[in-house]
Specification:
The chain is of the alpha/beta class. Helix content is about 30%, strand content about 25%. The relative contact order is 0.16. It binds pyridoxal-5'-phosphate. InterPro entries: Ala_racemase/Decarboxylase_C, DAP_deCOOHase_LysA, De-COase2_N, Orn/DAP/Arg_de-COase, PLP-binding_barrel.
């Protein structure tokens, strides 16, 4: 099987771990910047193109600042994500607010920041008017229902998804918003997650471009942007092929030329809202082997657990594992790699062929840069890990300290015992 290559060596990992104890999530600044530049180049044919990084994937201000320097905006869906973005200096059209089941406070905050507000439902038109006001530009989220298919089969099931509105509701929303003073509109849709095919965005773009032409004809609404949202995946497995973002951008350009340009809508801006594709491969969970256990199977116990990376336990997701310093050792041992939660699903890998592992080895869990740390939780009183940035010059920087017991107890006012 082809191997995936870690972005650090054992020597580098040891150097960082001497300063910041494992476990920690490590991010690769160089990889992040180069990838963001490839994304911007792939869509440079579109004058108004902007990637709005999905903050929920990796809510760390240091990483948001790197993406900001590369020309990205942010996609927020909650009050605290808006606050973090504000603190990083994002404002106005740098922010998309794509929420659902939205609290009034969140809607008001997005309005006050001048964000592009993406309405998830027709009833949110009146809600927006009531709790905040109607901005000049408003976006609506589309759900076509049914199943979403690509050449290779069913990708996802929008008809079962809670998000967005039907075409008739979109038209009604635009009409009501225009009556309330809105002048320009966006269209947003997210139809499939973690797609590993260059056809997803082009196919989605075709659907949304045709919808834009129909909505414009039907309501007279001026369409300012079309947001393809997230869903562009990465190759978590070593035998998977990676998406080619240049080919994806070119596929979207063809649909744009075919559908929007002839309709006189060649000035529409393309937005994306990727999380996973922007950061997942440029983050890793670095963890140390604490124990080995031999019962009916062979277990390796590490100092991280599902509270630091939930995807394997929650979705059965594959994350590739490299034992640092043993990159070239044959993978002739079969292990379950586990954390210490009192939950049998707390396993980073099951029946994984790996080199023979010793206590104290440093294990590198790949592709945790998005939906990794951010999905963490405190079950079993486990504390969230640190986040560390590997800078372009090879030095490292602590960009979030690990939680301490004081953090865990901070929301009690129970006993002086918990106060430092
Ligand atoms: C989660 C999410 C994204 C990012 O999805 P990825 O799969 O990480 O690209 C973008 N937009 C919205 C509205 C989301 O909920």
């Amino acid at each position: 099987m082809p191997q995936k290559k870690p972005f650090i060596t054992l020597a580098q990992a040891k150097e960082i771990a001497a300063d910041i104890p494992t476990p920690f999530h490590l991010y690769d600044e160089k990889g992040i910047r180069e990838n963001a530049r490839r994304v911007n180049a792939a869509f440079s044919w579109n004058k108004g193109f902007k990637e709005y990084f999905a903050v929920k994937a990796t809510p760390n201000p240091y990483l948001l600042k790197i993406l900001q320097e590369e020309g990205c905006g942010v996609d927020c869906s909650s009050y605290t994500e808006l606050l973090m973005s504000e603190a990083c200096g994002f404002k106005g059209s740098d922010i998309m607010f794509s929420s659902n089941d939205t609290p009034a406070q969140d809607m008001k905050k997005a309005y006050d920041l001048g964000a592009y507000i993406n309405l998830d439902d027709l009833t949110h038109v009146a809600f927006l008017e009531k709790v905040a006001g109607v901005p000049k530009t408003v976006c609506c989220r589309f759900n076509p229902g049914g199943v979403f298919e690509l050449g290779n089969g069913i990708m996802d099931n929008p008809g079962d998804a809670k998000y967005g509105m039907s075409e008739d509701q979109m038209a009604e929303a635009y009409t009501r918003l225009m009556a309330a003073g809105a002048e320009q509109f966006g269209i947003h849709s997210f139809l499939a997650s973690n797609t590993v095919t260059d056809d997803y965005y082009p196919k989605l773009a075709g659907i949304l471009f045709e919808l834009a032409v129909r909505l414009h004809k039907r309501t007279g609404a001026k369409i300012k942007f079309i947001n393809l949202s997230g869903g562009v995946g990465i190759a978590y497995r070593p035998d998977q092929r990676s998406n080619d973002i240049a080919a994806i951008g070119e596929g979207v350009r063809k649909k744009f030329e075919e559908i929007l340009v002839p309709a006189g809508m060649g000035d529409v801006a393309i937005f994306t809202e990727m999380g996973r594709f922007m950061l997942a491969p440029y983050g890793a969970l670095v963890t140390t082997v604490l124990h080995q256990k031999h019962i009916y199977k062979e277990y390796i116990g590490v100092d991280a657990c599902a509270a630091n990376l939930m995807r394997p336990a929650m979705y059965g997701s594959y994350h590739h594992i490299t034992v640092l310093g043993k990159e070239d050792t044959p993978c002739d041992h079969k292990y379950d790699v586990t954390g210490g939660l009192c939950e049998n699903n707390d396993k980073f890998a099951i029946d994984r062929m790996l080199p023979e592992i010793d206590i104290g080895d440093i294990v590198y869990i790949h592709d945790t840069g998005a939906h990794g740390f951010s999905m963490g939780y405190n079950y079993n009183g486990k504390l969230r890990s640190a986040e560390v940035l590997l800078k372009e010059d090879g030095s490292h920087q602590l960009i979030r300290r690990a939680e301490t017991p004081e953090d865990y107890f901070a929301t009690f006012d129970f006993s002086p015992f918990f106060k430092k």
